[in-house]
Amino acid sequence: MANSSKKKATIYDLSVLSGSSPSTVSAVLNGTWRKRRIKASTAELIQSLAETHQYTANRQARGLRSSRSGLVGLLLPVHDNRYFSSLAQTFEAHVRSKGQCPIVVSASRDPDEERKTAATLISYSIDELFICGATDPDGVHEVCEAAGLKHINIDLPGTKVPSVISDNFEGGRLLTEAIIRHFPADRPLQPNDLYLFGGRNDHASHERIRGFRAVKKELLGGDPDECIQPTGYAANNARRAFEAFFARHGKLPRGLFVNSSINFEGLLRFMAGHPHDNFADLVVGCYDYDPFASFLPFPVIMIRQDVEGMIAKAFEVIEELRPPPQIHLVQPELVPPRTALTGPLDALKDIDR
Amino acid sequence: MANSSKKKATIYDLSVLSGSSPSTVSAVLNGTWRKRRIKASTAELIQSLAETHQYTANRQARGLRSSRSGLVGLLLPVHDNRYFSSLAQTFEAHVRSKGQCPIVVSASRDPDEERKTAATLISYSIDELFICGATDPDGVHEVCEAAGLKHINIDLPGTKVPSVISDNFEGGRLLTEAIIRHFPADRPLQPNDLYLFGGRNDHASHERIRGFRAVKKELLGGDPDECIQPTGYAANNARRAFEAFFARHGKLPRGLFVNSSINFEGLLRFMAGHPHDNFADLVVGCYDYDPFASFLPFPVIMIRQDVEGMIAKAFEVIEELRPPPQIHLVQPELVPPRTALTGPLDALKDIDR
DNA sequence: AGTCTTTGCACCATCGATTGTGCAAATAAG
DNA sequence: CTTATTTGCACAATCGATGGTGCAAAGACT
């Protein structure tokens, strides 16, 4: 409460204290002082003053002048999901390692909110925007383009700038094949036993479904259309779809391809209301990885997307000068049942104990 | 590419276009124009110009002048965790509903990084900071205090400003009692059968442990010290602790109180390496809720913290003038096995299909 | 000693919005 | 028709940092 009082020190304060001009102080504190031929002793004086007075630059002022902010944005569909939150975690680490400040915001898969959110971020002069899982990536692109903001798509592709996404076709194939092969040869799956639930009208779902159908036709020799049940990315929609199926058939399909952990939660909600033994012969493949889901009391085969790989690739591509609007595929990984993989949190050192 | 070209429109552009002064334009666009007695027709003209030229205010300039930014910060330990990410999700909705912009950042439970991160946020002139699960809340407080920034603690309490946290003592009691009562009367739990794994040297763990020990002594009549095994909030530490126990006793305790889903993941990692039948008689209580964990092939009793309640309370308290540094307890909820609860995502409308 | 070069720094405009103040023109009051 | 009031807006300082430019003093060189 004494001297280092209420208001933050500015270069003007330090200018008075050091007897130098504000511009000299600025140059010293932003590192350009050698280029400006400031004497080392002057620099040291100012730096020590800055230290004792706890100077930190006002980023709004700096950003206003330089029209950069040091902020890097990540636009997510939602936070509350292990896939997206691990993307956020990994993204943050990358941004921080470049000395910038991550700003993670969600837009609920609403195209309108996506654009508005992007506009808000732009009004803070963010330096780059990573558009992740957007429902309308090209709509967000327009907004960014108009502001001259560098941006890139992740998870769901757009057509105007590069996109880094999972190889959903291959992942869909892998998962479908694993589900089918998980059934013993003496009780093989029939084409009508294997359903895909979840997903919506987006690129990822389309590709996964394409992979699903291709493998199904190849291995089971049939692929009825009704086996595809898109439900959107909402747990309760998925639950209703399972209820509807159950109402019609008195059971679930023996093999389930569940498109995303959110839809899998819908399956849980269904299960909570039905006796256990309905699921004795069930094999679930889920396009997403969750360690707890992997240990459920029926075989759960999962796909883990390569979050670290996607983020790394995205940072690599966004640094390029004028990258073509190309799709970069990153291979996902098949995870057998009862597998506990490590994640981004394992990279953190644990502090006490 | 035509006229609405590369650079963003400013009040000066609109000033020229409208024939008014920049200050008039500013007043019209920030809503203070009535107070400034601007003619309605002038305001309408400027507003329509702003519309057609897609004007959005430069927030850095506004923030510089007004020393407010419209940014509200949330400092998290980590993103990649359902508890914290649902806090983020809920926080975001609250901030957005107030017309401000949420900025969610994690600091890895590192006290030093917590302070640095807070300082960074402050340099962007954020308006408020919610300090969630900080290892050193009072350290962050110093930084905020020095900058005159309103702040509040969530999840882990500090001593300088109000804190909104779960009633961990009560939650610990509830969970412990539920674990004990889950065992049939003919094979009751012995004091040596019930262990607590996980947590660290923080307020939450202390309180949960206090609740655990109180109930244990009360219901089981004993409470050996070795039954408390703090492992930090790291999955691999927890795994090692389970391995160590198993090496000594050839089995796990029949009853497990697992302090957080992160530690529960450590249990999964342990389980992945051991045959299934080691867990036939196991009951797990976990201080955290995860829908998938709730359906694991052994009874899992969970605690769900009232995320919505905590966030709402925190926003309520932070708006008060000079709130005393008091702890506000929010009651958590006991979740029986095989329960699929809804979460913040269920509030979102699903767009297509 | 005189000229040229280098060193070291100060000055000032600038980024875009906000806001206190001042002052004409329009209107009302007498 | 004159004075008082209200209306409607422009002016200019300000927030804090940046970076181009200019210029005096110190040093090098002939």
Structure commentary:
Two copies of one chain form a homodimer. With 353 residues, chain A is of the alpha/beta class. The first copy, chain A, folds into three domains: 47 residues, no CATH class; 122 residues, Response regulator (Rossmann fold, 3-Layer(aba) Sandwich), CATH 3.40.50.2300; 137 residues, Rossmann fold. In chain A, 42% of the residues lie in helices and 15% in strands. Chain A has twelve helices and twelve strands. In chain A, the strands form two sheets. Chain A has a six-stranded parallel β-sheet, with helices on both faces. A six-stranded mixed β-sheet of chain A has the order 7-6-8-9-10-12, sandwiched between helices. In chain A, helix 1 crosses helix 2. The first copy, chain A, is elongated. The model of chain A has no long low-confidence stretch (mean pLDDT 94). The interface between A and B is large, with 87 and 87 residues. Chain A binds a DNA duplex (30 and 30 nucleotides) through helix 2 and helix 4.
Index terms:
DNA-binding, Rossmann fold, 42% helix, 353 residues, six-stranded mixed β-sheet, six-stranded parallel β-sheet, homodimer, alpha/beta, 3 domains, 12 helices
